[in-house]
Amino acid sequence: MITDNPKIVTVIRAKNEGRWIGKLFESLNGLSSEIIVIDNGSTDDTIQICENSENVVKFIQQGNIPFDDTRDKNVLYEEAKKRNPDFILTMDGDEIFPPKTQHILLDEIKNNPEVNVFEFQSLFIWDRPNQYRSDGIFKTTWQKRLLRMKPQPPN
């Protein structure tokens, strides 16, 4: 059974997200217990921001290799599972939660113990902190992002 404060491990894919990733970390305060980041060859200050964040418990630097969403998510999920989380939350380095989202998600978790996958909207930051994309591939902003890991059958 989940306690009032479930252990949520957030996994993040990033490349050159130095402008935004610090804001993402801030938006996770009060929600995420630990953060794992995989970096695909950043050349900006993304690496330094991640290495200096107290909530980033694992930073995986892959170098500038071809984009492979499945490979990266598999690596992130395997690392997150090692941390024995109640939930795994997936985010990208250029997404943030609006204010108070952490309270809403924690209430949803508490009030819906039978739900194993939570779907919600995130904002894709664009050129400025108050500018979000909602066109093209960014218009489908409702995604399954919060996965319950406990209790699960042993197999």
Features:
25% helix; 4 helices; single chain; 3-stranded antiparallel β-sheet; 6-stranded mixed β-sheet; 9 strands; alpha/beta; 155 residues
What is the structural class? alpha/beta
Summarize the helix and strand pattern as letters. Answer: EHEHEHEEHEEEE
Helix content: 10-25%
Question: What is the arithmetic mean of pLDDT?
Answer: 87
Termini Cα gap: 18 Å
Shape: globular
Strand content: 25-35%
How is the biggest beta sheet arranged?
Answer: 6 strands, mixed
Radius of gyration: 15 Å
Strand order of the largest sheet: 3-2-1-4-9-6
Number of continuous helical runs: 4
State the low-pLDDT regions, or none.
none
Number of strands: 9
